[in-house]
Write a structure and sequence with these properties.
Layout: E1 3-7, E2 12-16, H1 22-32, E3 37-39, E4 46-52, H2 58-62, E5 66-71, E6 80-86, E7 92-96, E8 101-105, E9 111-116, H3 121-138, E10 142-144, E11 146-151, E12 154-159, H4 166-176, E13 180-183, E14 187-192, E15 195-199, E16 206-208, H5 209-212, H6 216-221, E17 239-241, H7 244-252, E18 258-259, E19 262-270, E20 276-279, H8 286-291, E21 294-295, H9 301-304, H10 321-328, E22 332-337
Parallel strand pairs: 2-4, 4-9, 12-19, 19-22
Antiparallel strand pairs: 1-2, 1-3, 5-6, 6-7, 7-8, 8-9, 10-14, 10-21, 11-12, 11-13, 14-15, 15-18, 16-17, 20-22
Length: about 350
């Protein structure tokens, strides 16, 4: 039984019998790179044993089951549902017949048998991402809802609520302001040996039409259709899911997975006025602003449906005051305007 291990330095998981579903397993490895790399000398926090969906026992498909939501999202492809029941040996079975994906959890171990198909990619990506975040949270990592770019070894975090312009700002930093990609929508913060440890996280691109319209060359290379079935332009507020590997190849380039330097925290805000860039006021409640950006993995619906990493699940929120106070002492930049950061405008600030 072949087993390979992958780690990000804190979380380690195993893939067993990848050859049963080589395309599915290979796409996961590509999706997680460079945040997770192959390793040999670590114990696994959890294991995934691959089997084809065609081998799923027929009696499981007929078994009485509870209807559950596996994942809910504004993106239809991420709306995953299933049927859940306890098998006669006490193990847990979850089956999503729509996407030909099944899970068999052994209650006595941290192993899941994944019965997969060519439709199981999002299932697998999300399962690994969010199970890993449970373990990160238990170890004290703080998860921020933020994008990130990096320049000269320093990370520029882009923070804000939905619709603030985080993705537009991130792409602008990369395309016009001399930065490399760091992270798409989540950033992990923890204490390191020499201060803060900042790490990126694998992301499935979900980009707004309004943002994409600013990059027609990318739209062409990504082979995206910005019109509806009647040939009318899609609303700017709509979002498109984009192949992670293609988006990385065309838009993002190589990612930097980790740093211990912060250049600035950037807070974009889309307004009707011309763009302005200013240093954020020191009188603001900085820790309070950041606290509103924290995500708590043990509260996510995405992981509540399965029993894996049971020993790593928190039941209440950790106190991240020390990390927040350290971030509050860094440079903060406010960017307001129609296009957030126009061409080359931020270069003088970073």
């Amino acid at each position: 039984m072949r087993e390979r291990k992958f780690t990000n330095g804190l979380v380690t998981f195993s893939l067993i019998d990848e050859e049963a579903l080589p395309e599915l397993a290979g796409s996961l490895v590509q999706f997680l790179d460079p945040y997770f790399k192959e390793t040999e000398n670590r114990d696994s926090n959890f294991k995934i044993h691959f089997k084809p969906y065609s081998l799923l026992p027929g009696e499981w498909l007929k078994h009485t089951a509870e209807q559950i939501v596996i994942r809910h999202s504004t993106a239809a492809a991420f709306n995953l549902k299933g049927r859940k029941f306890i098998w006669r040996d006490g193990s847990t079975v979850v089956i999503d017949e729509t996407y030909c994906t099944g899970y068999h959890f052994n209650q006595d171990s941290e192993t899941v048998v994944l019965y997969g198909s060519e439709q199981s990619h999002i299932h697998l990506y999300e399962f690994v991402r969010y199970t890993s975040l449970l373990i990160e949270e238990r170890a004290g990592s703080m998860l921020l809802h933020a994008s990130g770019a990096i320049k000269d070894g320093a990370c520029y975090l882009v923070l804000g609520h939905k619709g603030a312009g985080k993705t537009s700002t991130l792409l602008n930093l990369i395309d016009h302001n001399g930065c490399q990609y760091f992270s798409g929508d989540k950033v992990l913060i923890s204490q390191g040996k020499s201060g803060l440890r900042i790490r990126g996280w694998p992301d499935y691109p979900h980009v707004g039409i309004g943002t994409l319209k600013n990059y027609p060359a990318w739209v062409s290379e990504l082979r995206l259709d910005l019109q509806d079935e009647n040939g009318e332009p899609k609303p700017d507020s709509d979002k498109l899911l984009i192949s992670p590997s293609l988006f990385r190849k065309v838009v993002l380039g190589a990612a930097e997975p980790e740093t211990d330097k912060i250049g600035a925290l950037i807070f974009p805000e889309i307004t009707a006025e011309d763009t302005s860039i200013t240093d954020f006021g020191r009188t603001a409640d900085r820790t309070g602003i950041l606290r509103a950006m924290i995500e708590y993995p043990h509260e996510f619906l995405t992981v509540k449906w399965h029993p894996l990493a049971g020993g790593s699940r928190l039941s209440e929120r950790l106190d991240y005051t020390d990390l927040l106070e350290a971030l509050a002492e860094t440079r903060w930049i406010s960017v307001k305007g129609k296009t957030c950061i126009p061409r080359d405008t931020l270069r003088q600030h970073i």
